[in-house]
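Ops channel
N.P.: pipeline sanity check, posting one input/output pair.
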């Protein structure tokens, strides 16, 4: 999971979730309901999302509990004893369907569908939105960075500027899912079993009498995996010192792994450093670049002919700086009537209308397996294509074999590879076609008319 223990996160919710649930309880509104979690619209320069965060959601739901400490605090907020007694015994008992992590998804597609007693379904909203928002935002950003790198390794370097310790863990996880080769975050490496990478800071170089001494010291400590930071004083002088150390390592039977450039004209510097390395028989030494990089900057560098073998990407990827959130929501789509039968429901707010009923997402591919279009249909409607939503929880228990992080990553890389390039362009990407099925369109029309008529009548009578 992450640095924060999700098992104790039951109170990580907005107050209005609890106040609504207290009112449901008092008025004995305890029937079943179904909610969809989905992303309403695309941010600028995005044409797809890479879904991430499901594992944390499922583990949270299975272990969600309210402790006596929680109950005591809620009592101080004025909640009534009978509702607090209900929370003491709270266990999530619902069914959950979800699209597997690592799947490429699009706006308005249900990513998670929850069917449960209304109080249970309502109480989990905030945690689900928080968890899926962060990881899907970062996975999507990281997928774009990896795509821009054109097969060159990308290392997630953003821990020190990410928004808190839990975010730092989940950013590392989501970035790795999206195709990053690893992270600088040591705890993430330990918890998730992903590769960790690191070089040195400018302070290390500056602490020694001179740059060459610092390089020799570091190479002595790590003779088989040293990457030397060469831009503390002068990139070219730094490269020449790195070449001296590389030759010294060769005589000892080792190889310098790489040099890192963190500032300056990365195109011109990388070209000159590559020339110097190659002239000295060090074509195996990699040039690693870092410093305010994102997908746009990486694309620009490579278009200009930069000789860079790998990238360290921090702040702008770890915070998704150009769009640090997605427009993710969790909305009621059906409720049980007095007979216990489910009836579809939808929201009609201008610009925020929702899709009614239980739905499935079907994906269509061409003969080569590439994605062609998606169709959102009512559950059970026959439209063809591959259904994406699978049942992951039944009666509050996880029934889904949680895939390993490596398997999620493989799914993500396969999904992105099967998305045609016109949808992956960093700017002005084509819009992927997502259609509504005939039955769903018909239900929307009929239900919209009925709700306007019913609600208008109620408002007129009052």
């Amino acid at each position: 999971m992450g640095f924060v223990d999700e098992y104790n996160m039951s109170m990580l919710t907005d107050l209005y979730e609890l106040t609504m649930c207290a009112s449901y309880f008092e008025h004995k509104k305890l029937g079943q309901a179904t909610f969809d979690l989905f992303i309403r619209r695309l941010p600028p320069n995005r044409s797809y999302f890479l879904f991430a965060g499901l594992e944390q959601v499922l583990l949270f739901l299975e272990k969600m509990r309210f402790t006596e400490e929680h109950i005591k605090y809620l009592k101080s907020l004025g909640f009534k004893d009978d509702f607090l007694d209900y929370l003491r015994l709270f266990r999530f008992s619902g069914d959950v369907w979800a699209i597997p992590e690592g799947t490429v998804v699009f706006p308005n597609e249900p990513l998670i569908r929850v069917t449960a007693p209304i109080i249970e379904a309502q109480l989990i909203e905030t945690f689900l939105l928080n968890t899926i928002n962060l990881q899907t935002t970062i996975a999507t950003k990281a997928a774009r960075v990896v795509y821009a790198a054109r097969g060159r390794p990308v290392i997630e370097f953003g821990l020190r500027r990410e928004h808190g310790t839990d975010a730092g863990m989940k950013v590392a996880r989501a970035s790795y899912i999206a195709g990053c080769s690893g992270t600088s975050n040591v705890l993430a490496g330990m918890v998730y079993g992903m590769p960790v990478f690191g070089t040195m800071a400018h302070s290390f170089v500056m602490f020694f009498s001179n740059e060459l001494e610092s390089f020799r010291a570091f190479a002595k400590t790590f003779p088989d995996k040293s990457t030397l930071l060469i831009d503390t004083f002068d990139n070219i002088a730094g490269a020449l010192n790195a070449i001296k150390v590389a030759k010294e390592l060769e005589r000892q039977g080792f190889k310098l792994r790489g040099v890192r450039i963190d500032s300056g004209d990365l195109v011109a510097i990388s070209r000159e450093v590559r020339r110097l390395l190659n002239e000295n028989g060090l074509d195996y030494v990699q040039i690693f670049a870092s410093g305010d990089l994102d997908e746009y900057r990486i694309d620009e560098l490579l278009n200009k002919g930069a000789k860079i073998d790998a990238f360290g990407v921090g702040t702008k990827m770890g915070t998704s700086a150009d769009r640090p959130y997605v427009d993710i929501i969790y909305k009621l789509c059906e409720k049980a009537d007095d007979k216990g039968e489910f009836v579809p429901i939808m929201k009609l707010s201008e610009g925020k209308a929702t899709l009614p009923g239980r739905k499935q997402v079907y994906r269509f591919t061409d003969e080569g397996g590439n994605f062609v279009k998606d169709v959102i249909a009512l559950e059970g409607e026959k439209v063809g294509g591959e259904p994406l939503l699978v049942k992951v929880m039944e009666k509050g228990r996880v029934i889904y074999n949680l895939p390993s992080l490596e398997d999620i990553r493989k799914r993500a890389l396969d999904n992105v590879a099967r998305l045609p390039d016109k949808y992956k362009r960093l700017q002005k990407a084509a819009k992927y076609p997502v259609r509504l099925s005939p039955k769903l369109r018909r239900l929307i029309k009929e239900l919209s008319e009925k709700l306007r008529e019913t609600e208008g009548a109620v408002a007129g009578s009052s």
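N.P.: looks fine end to end. The chain has a mean pLDDT of 95.
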